[in-house]
């Protein structure tokens, strides 16, 4: 349930995340009528500016199309309940000053609630001091919640340290750790697809499925954020969180109920059945200049000899009765040929069949862009002879749900946090197992126990390293002529 009288405080209000995601999502929710009654939004950052300047910036984050008067009117309304406070991230005085502002706003409320949702759109270096400062100086009498987002450390130990420090101030129940992939429509759909369809449930195991790929592709490089990226690399940026989250929902057993704890219990259980990734199951790449685009190392903020991977493919195994022996290939690449995130489940060959050399069935869930689900089947070629023809049963959202606006991940997640629903947020123990799977391979990549491996080069704008096709074929993937 939504609590009236809530203040949403966005810390890091002039940063990239706030600009690109948080404010547009808050506005989207407001426009659709999903923000609580009497909501108030407070931006907080170090930059000193008056309210007029803040409102000007806020408007620019919301990108209202010209001549769209209705939206422009909504923006004006949105600004009327947004204010700004500037202050530091380290000192108690700043937080006391923020609290004074929050108290003043709450003084105007008629209701009895005093609810605060703190959104930390901040770099991890200040998570702990801000968490502490807010808890000690800005804690309200009603419900308090805090939203944080990755990176949650760099390996098992550093993650535990970070979580431990935050836990001194905020309980698990008050903490909402975002993995924004959990807010994406098609990721949320996995639960329904899997557990509301007998047709899919029955073949969802090693007996029917040959291999699974979860793929992330982005057609641009790390230009502009090379400094951050070089410290983390593609595995921490995408695989350890976004793709592993998708994998866990795809493979977990049926939760006892739809509740957050039951769902997350099952996710943790399946993740615990995944042993740490092996070097021989891993392919690393780094993009080089091509087609007039710069290589990864051409970025001034990247060390000239960096071996940081911008592409990784790695195969995970799940040691439980349902999935033993099925390879799950996670792959992610920056600066490749297209933007695409999808799950591809490839079924086994038809055995002992009367049909020879026919395409395998595949179920593809396209997460983005152009959300869709399609199932590759063989059907009889229409006509006076019998021949199997591979076709696609295609559920493209744009066609089937043409009038429905698909919500943004951040809209969905902020609404969940306002309601106190943890289902689509990452629990502490879930993070811990996720890091255990990836920590050894990450330490190897960083050369902690021997020379660091060299990623193979691939041209900017290509499909990825040329070693990729043999890599996925090694795990049984068979390309059908449908590509
Ligand atoms: C972020 C990564 O978590 O996800 C970025 O840090 C990446 O490198 C982004 O570009 C992708 O998100 P989306 O929603 O555009 O797929």
Question: TL;DR?
Answer:
This protein has 483 residues and is α/β, with parallel strands linked by helices. The protein has 14 helices and 15 strands.
Features:
binds 6-O-phosphono-beta-D-glucopyranose, 6-stranded parallel β-sheet, 9-stranded mixed β-sheet, G6P_DH, 15 strands, 483 residues
Mean of all residue-level pLDDT scores: 94
Low-confidence stretches: none
E-strand count: 15
Report how far the terminal alpha carbons are from each other.
Answer: 46 Å
Main sheet characteristics: 9 strands, mixed
Q: Please identify the structural class as seen in this structure.
A: alpha/beta
Helical content, roughly?
Answer: 25-40%
Count of individual helical segments: 14
* Main β-sheet, spatial strand arrangement: 14-13-12-11-7-10-9-8-15
* % residues in beta strands: 15-25%
- Helix-strand sequence: EHEHHEHEHEHEHHEHHEEEEEEEHHHEH
User: Overall 3D geometry?
Assistant: globular
Bound molecules: 6-O-phosphono-beta-D-glucopyranose
Which value, in Å, is the CA radius of gyration? 24 Å
Pathway: Carbohydrate degradation; pentose phosphate pathway; D-ribulose 5-phosphate from D-glucose 6-phosphate (oxidative stage): step 1/3
Protein name: Glucose-6-phosphate 1-dehydrogenase
Catalytic activity: D-glucose 6-phosphate + NADP(+) = 6-phospho-D-glucono-1,5-lactone + NADPH + H(+)
Domain Glucose-6-phosphate dehydrogenase NAD-binding: 9-189
């Amino acid at each position: 349930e939504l609590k009236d009288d809530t203040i949403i405080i966005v810390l890091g209000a002039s940063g990239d995340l706030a600009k690109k995601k948080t404010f547009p999502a808050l506005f989207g929710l407001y426009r659709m009528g999903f923000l609580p009654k009497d909501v108030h939004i407070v931006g907080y950052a170090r930059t000193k500016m008056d309210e007029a300047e803040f409102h000007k910036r806020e408007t620019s984050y919301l990108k209202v199309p010209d001549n769209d008067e209705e939206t422009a009117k909504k923006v004006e309304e949105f600004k009327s309940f947004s204010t700004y406070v500037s202050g530091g991230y380290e000192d108690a005085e700043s937080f006391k000053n923020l609290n004074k502002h929050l108290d003043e706003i709450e003084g105007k409320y008629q209701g009895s609630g005093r609810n605060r949702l703190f959104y930390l759109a901040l770099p991890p270096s200040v998570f702990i001091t801000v968490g502490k400062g807010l808890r000690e100086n800005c804690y309200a009498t009603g419900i308090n919640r805090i939203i944080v987002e990755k990176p949650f450390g760099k390996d098992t130990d550093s993650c535990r340290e970070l979580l431990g420090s935050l836990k001194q101030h905020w309980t698990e129940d008050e903490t909402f750790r975002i993995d924004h992939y959990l807010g994406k429509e098609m990721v949320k759909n996995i639960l329904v697809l899997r557990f509301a369809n007998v047709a899919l449930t029955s073949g969802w195991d090693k007996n029917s499925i040959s291999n699974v790929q979860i793929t992330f592709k982005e057609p641009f490089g790390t230009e502009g954020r090379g400094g951050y990226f070089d410290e983390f690399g593609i595995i921490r940026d995408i695989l350890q969180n976004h793709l592993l989250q998708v994998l866990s929902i795809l493979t977990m057993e049926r939760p006892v109920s739809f509740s957050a704890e039951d769902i997350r219990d099952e996710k943790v259980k399946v993740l615990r059945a995944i042993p740490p990734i092996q070097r021989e199951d891993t392919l690393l790449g780094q993009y080089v200049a091509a087609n007039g685009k710069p290589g990864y190392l051409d970025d001034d903020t990247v060390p000239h000899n960096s071996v940081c991977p911008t592409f990784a493919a790695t195969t995970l195994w799940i040691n439980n009765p349902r999935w033993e022996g099925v390879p799950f290939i996670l792959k992610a690449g920056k600066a490749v040929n297209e933007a695409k995130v999808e799950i591809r489940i490839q079924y086994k060959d038809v055995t002992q069949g009367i049909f020879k050399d026919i395409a395998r069935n595949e179920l593809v869930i396209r997460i983005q862009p152009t959300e869709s689900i399609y199932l590759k089947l063989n059907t009889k070629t229409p006509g006076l002879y019998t021949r199997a023809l591979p076709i696609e049963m295609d559920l493209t959202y744009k066609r089937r749900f043409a009038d429905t606006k698909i919500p943004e991940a951040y809209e969905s997640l902020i609404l969940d946090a306002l309601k106190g629903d943890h289902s689509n947020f990452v629990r502490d123990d879930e993070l811990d197992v996720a890091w255990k799977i990836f920590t050894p391979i990450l330490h190897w990549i960083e050369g902690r126990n021997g020379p660091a491996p060299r990623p193979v080069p691939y041209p900017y704008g290509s499909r990825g390293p040329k070693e990729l096709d043999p890599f996925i074929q090694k795990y049984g993937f068979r390309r059908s002529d449908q590509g």
